Amino acid sequence: MCYRSVLTTPKQAVIEWFNAVGDDVPEQPPRRNIRPTQPLVAVRSANGQRRLSLLRWAFTPHWYKALNDGPPIMNARAETIAAKPAFADAVRHRRCLIPADGYYEWTSSEDDGGKDPWFIHAAGGQVMGFAGIWQAWRSPDGVLYEGCAIVTTAANARMSNLHARMPLVISPENYALWLGEAGHGAARLMQPGAEELLDYHRVDRAINGAKTDDRDYTRPLIANGNPRATANL
User: Fold this and answer.
1) Nearest C-alpha neighbor of 230 from the set 128, 112, 123
2) Rounded to an integer, what distance in angstroms lies between the CA atom of residue 233 and that of residue 229?
3) Backbone CA torsion sign across 97, 102, 103, 106
């Protein structure tokens, strides 16, 4: 799944990578611990132009009477997204890209039974575009909320070392198709990423339960002078 996201790439670099404009989004500080219900930078396409926007990381179904009518929806499964009443219209008409430098997953430690965090990122180090869907929802008192969910697929063999699911990563050549600029056919993109797409390393448990962005949680964990890396799995 994906419940913590990272975006440290500067705004101008994001604009250039996604060929978008970003007048509506202020420069974001490096964010290494983005959590559910917080704002996510998103790329949406309308009237022939891609624009950055800030969306609440929680998808609110149209029938909710309040934001807390149910648990926050952060992820949507690719295998069932088109059939779920909450997502069916959004996946057809309101798809977006979520720029990210990476995300975190956790495994159970053989040493003490605790949760060991891992930072997962593009093998080449570049910013990625997670597939997303978005929804506009208006509260009974008239406040408009625009929220999103990240689309996930079954993990490929490499990522299944960490978790059974992974975000759907859209390659740059398919941005136009996912955003609806290149017509129909986005369903064919909803497959696990290639084995060489992502890499990962252990990070400090300080990220567990952290509610701030006040440190670099993505640094490789060093134990006894050696990085704790993928060889431990």
Assistant:
1) 123
2) 8
3) positive
Regions in the chain scoring below 70 on pLDDT: 1, 223-233
The distance of Cα 151 from the centroid of its chain, to the nearest Å, equals 8
Any long-range contacts for 21-24 (C-beta under 8 Å, 24+ apart)?
21/49, 21/50, 21/51, 21/52, 22/51, 22/52, 23/51, 24/51, 24/52, 24/53, 24/54
- Residue 15, SS3? helix
Q: Are 200 and 120 in contact (CB under 8 A)?
A: yes
H helix or E strand, kind and range, residue 92: helix 88-93
Give the count of beta carbons closer than 10 Å to the beta carbon of residue 166. Answer: 25
The tens digit of pLDDT for each residue in 84-142 reads: 999 999 999 999 999 999 999 999 988 888 999 999 999 999 999 999 999 999 999 99
Return the amino acid letter for 171: S
CA triple 49-103-76, angle to 5 deg = 65
| Cross-strand partners of 102 | 6
- The strand pairing partners of 51, in sequence order, are 21, 44
Q: At a CB cut-off of 8 Å and minimum separation 6, what does 106 contact? A: 115, 116, 117, 118, 162, 208
**Cα separations in angstroms, 133 against 43, 118, 218:** 11, 25, 26
